[in-house]
Amino acid sequence: MNEDDVNRQLKNLISFIKKEAKERVDELRDEGEQEFNSEKNRIIQENKAKINAEFEKRKKALEARKKIAFSNELNHARLGSLKAREESLQEVYATAFHSLAAIEKGPNYPTLLINLILQGLYLIREETVIIVARQEDIAIIRPKLQNIVDTYREKTGDSVNLVIDDRHFLAPSPSSVAEGVASCAGGVVLSAREGRIMCNNTFEQRLNLAYENLLPSVRTSLFGASSSRRHFD
User: Fold this and answer.
1) CB neighbours (10 Å) of residue 124?
2) At what angle do helices 145-156 and 109-124 cross, to 10 degrees?
3) Distances 188 to 74, 118, 124, 192, 232 between C-alpha atoms, Å
4) How many C-beta atoms surround the C-beta of residue 109 within 10 A?
5) How many helices (H) and strands (E) does the chain have?
6) Residue 107: phi, psi to the nearest 5?
7) What is 71-100 written as a DSSP string?
8) Alpha carbon distance 108, 203 (integer Å)
9) pLDDT tens, 124-173?
10) pTM
């Protein structure tokens, strides 16, 4: 083999080595790019998942705060509405309460007072009954005691012994005391069996009972029927 053949073979070997090296470099470059892109995508997806999770977390927290704020505002509005309704009901009650004072000044008050005593007697049905009244009403009741006894016997067939309490009296008329001082607009309290049986038939007690019984109707008249109510008296 002459020198030219050697050089030719050497040249071919060098070319082959360079080609193999280049192919290997290209192969490593492609693998590196693939690994880089794969890792980059992994990191992107991982961070995207974290961002989405954080976004959902904050979104839910914001929605929860909105719901809480709405609930608080709704409750505040409901409480305000309930307070306004209660104030309106109290105004109705106060108006009725103040009107009681005018009854005793009317011509029918003596008859009404006697009827309240009879009503209490029919209710408790006792043989001896003590009448507790306002001091200013004693003069109305005392002359009518026998008429009350006779009417009671006629209606029930029973006798009753009526005693006016001359030591203990109901509070005086609202018109005779200062505002804020205990008063009674009229009526009586009947007592039997040493106070174990009582019948409060004062105007104030009758108003309270009427107010409690008529409260649903008053509410409906003032505010309309409740949409949440399913049962009616």
Assistant:
1) 15
2) 50
3) 47, 11, 14, 13, 34
4) 15
5) 5, 4
6) -70, -20
7) HHHHHHHHHHHHHHHHHHHHHHHHHHHHHH
8) 14
9) 999 999 999 999 999 999 999 999 999 999 999 999 999 999 999 999 99
10) 0.59
The total of other beta-carbon atoms located within 10 Å of residue 195's CB is 8
216 CB neighbour count, 10 Å cutoff = 14
Torsion of Cα atoms, 139 then 143 then 148 then 153, to 10° = 150
Q: How far is CA 163 from CA 45, 108, 138, 182, in A?
A: 98, 23, 11, 25
CB atoms within 10 A of CB 199: 20
Which residue type occupies 96?
Answer: A
What is the structure's pLDDT at 214? 64
